[in-house]
Amino acid sequence: MPSVVVVGTQWGDEGKGKIVDLLAERADYVVRFQGGNNAGHTLVINGRKHILHLIPSGIFHEDKVCLIGNGVVVDPAVLLQEIEELEKSGLPVPPGRLYVSERAHLIMPYHKAIDLGREALKGKTRIGTTGRGIGPCYEDKVARRGIRVGELLDPETFASKLREVLEEKNFYLEKYLGREPLSFEEIYETYLRYGERLAPYVTNVSEILDRAHREGRNILFEGAQGTQLDIDHGTYPFVTSSNTVAGNACAGAGLGPTRIDFVLGVAKAYTTRVGEGPFPTELRDETGERLRECGGEYGATTGRPRRCGWLDGVILKEAARLNGLTGLAITKLDVLSGLPEILFCEAYEIEGRRLEQTPVRMADFQKLKPLYRTFRGWPESLEGVKNFEDLPQAAREYLSFVENFLGVPIVMISTGPAREAHILLRDPFAP
Fold first, then answer.
1. pLDDT value at position 301?
2. Domain limits at 188?
3. For position 219, what pLDDT does the model report?
């Protein structure tokens, strides 16, 4: 009855959706525990691309129960649209297959308006937010003025809370951000309709998980974004607004930490980042462009081109420590095929000193020089490779170094975008 947490070890976009999809075959419950629809998981199933923003990737397995935990911030319009799109593609999503925590906070129209207004005001100093209202929603949650999913089902309570908070938000939108005020009646009526449609899905997710654990069910926790975007441990302030590390799986879903058995970190065979912020190993040359095009490195949520660079061992070591990784999944190894040589950052140099951890001050990131170890590349395609021993020798050497450098075993390797293109070295759900 293992409980497995899957987290990103870089700046997100590591290919967690595919890994979760593969592990979901062995799970009974798949849980999303943080973030909002600023995250996106891309899967290729039977040659067709699917992109999810809120619903866990396990939804593509018809016998699984998918749960959206209390740590997620929910835009009800996006959630309902995802349900509709899945059903149009022939995949029913009835209550019983999907549940939403009554304690999850709602993204409101004023959250999105504030998000966009702030970015416009900052200009060149912007954070690079997706503008979907995630940060302002988490702000209201911490300030104890948020509105939760369960309150949509009580029109009087919802009206009272909305009226109180909207007065403050409209003042801020008009007087500080120079934006148009929002209508109480329009928001109220729209969100009540959302509530009516979502009502059958709303429940106490913590109770479901507790019961599942006592019954010996396999539970898979699906993280969004990556460790370096964690609000506490990432490259602050260029981070997201929630805790992305494995420890938040418990707080964001309502299951105790003693119930977690395996933490799987997902890392690309190189590094990418979307948006602003430091990126020590970024390549602004033909190699970086090649990685972007061969890897299809464009944001699943925004479509923005991802910045690309060599694999950064410093941030991977931090991810191993912060998440307590039990195993590592390497994705997009196939993208490196054909490169004459491959570089791996094993430390930084700053003002003549060797540094083996990321600095706290943003100014220090500008001074970092990556210290690389060079590996020979491999010309062979990885298409159809199903066993580690069948990988090119140079690829095996590269992976073995990464494994030994981190002190974390590699348990999965993705060799292409399709569901079947992977090598499984150890099943995280195995006893």
1. 64
2. 105-201
3. 98
* Count of beta carbons in the 10 Å neighbourhood of residue 88: 8
Is 422 marked active-site?
no
pLDDT of residue 321: 98
290 is in an annotated binding site: no
Out of 21, 41, 64, 105, the active site residue is: 41
CATH code, domain carrying 362 = 3.40.440.10
| 385 SS3 class | coil
d(CA 143, CA 54): 24
**C-beta neighbour count of 323 within 10 angstroms:** 25
Q: For residue 24, tell me if it sits in a domain.
A: yes
Residue with tokens 């019983």: 96
Active site residue 49: no
Residue 31 sits in the same domain as residue 162: no
Query: What are the tens digits of pLDDT across the range 254-294?
Result: 999 999 999 999 999 999 998 889 999 999 999 999 999 99
415 annotated among ligand-binding-site residues: yes
Assess whether 135 and 169 both reside in one domain. yes
**Any binding-site annotation on 304?**
yes
Domain assignment present for 411: yes
Catalytic option among 141, 169, 233, 268: 141
Residue 429 lies in a domain: no
Does 76 sit behind a cis peptide bond, omega within 30 degrees of 0 on the bond before it?
A: no
Catalytic: 13?
A: yes
Look at residue 52 in the predicted model and tell me its pLDDT.
Answer: 84
Q: Check whether 421 is labelled as a binding-site residue.
A: no
Pick from 186, 201, 216: which residue ends a domain?
201
Q: Which helix (H) or strand (E) holds 17?
A: helix 16-24
- Predicted confidence at residue 120, as pLDDT, reads 82
Residue 112 is assigned to a ligand binding site: no
431 in any annotated domain: no
Same domain assignment for residues 284 and 376: yes
Same domain for 179 and 322? Answer: no
**pTM of the complete model:** 0.93
What letter represents residue 22's amino acid? L
